[in-house]
UniProtKB/TrEMBL annotation:
Keywords: Signal. This is Uncharacterized protein. The lineage of its organism: Bacteria, Pseudomonadati, Pseudomonadota, Alphaproteobacteria, Hyphomicrobiales. Residues 1-24 form the signal peptide.
Length: 119
């Protein structure tokens, strides 16, 4: 009986760990970056903060494109239209394309998007 209780406790603990959400956050590895303040100041046209470099995802040129003045990105194998009000239009100081996604019910949505040079 004690062994059964121990197993149930271990299974419950494992399930709690598996189900715990993982929030995006800066773990400190970019604390000394000269661009840290700039990244933290970025906002989309809609006014929402993009957060930090640590929250963004750098994209390869094959994972984003533009057509008729609108962007789209490929995240987790799926092409997603980038809403116009999430595009950052100030000069890109890092040169690489960055997208700041967030997920609702497993579906990727775009918080901010900064196009790169596409070279």
């Amino acid at each position: 009986m004690a062994m059964l209780c121990l197993r149930m406790i271990l299974v419950a603990a494992a399930m709690a760990l598996i189900g715990a959400p993982a929030d995006a956050r800066d773990d400190g590895r970019f604390a000394n970056s000269p661009l840290k303040g700039w990244f933290e100041s970025l906002h989309s046209k809609g006014g929402g903060p993009c957060c930090a470099d640590a929250d963004g995802t750098a994209l390869d040129d094959v994972d984003w494109d533009t057509s008729n003045g609108h962007y789209r990105v490929r995240l987790q194998g799926e092409w997603i239209q980038v809403p116009d009000d999430t595009v950052i239009t100030e000069p890109n100081r890092v040169g690489r394309t960055i997208v700041w996604p967030y997920y609702v019910n497993g579906r990727a949505l775009i918080r901010c998007f900064m196009p790169g040079s596409m070279t």
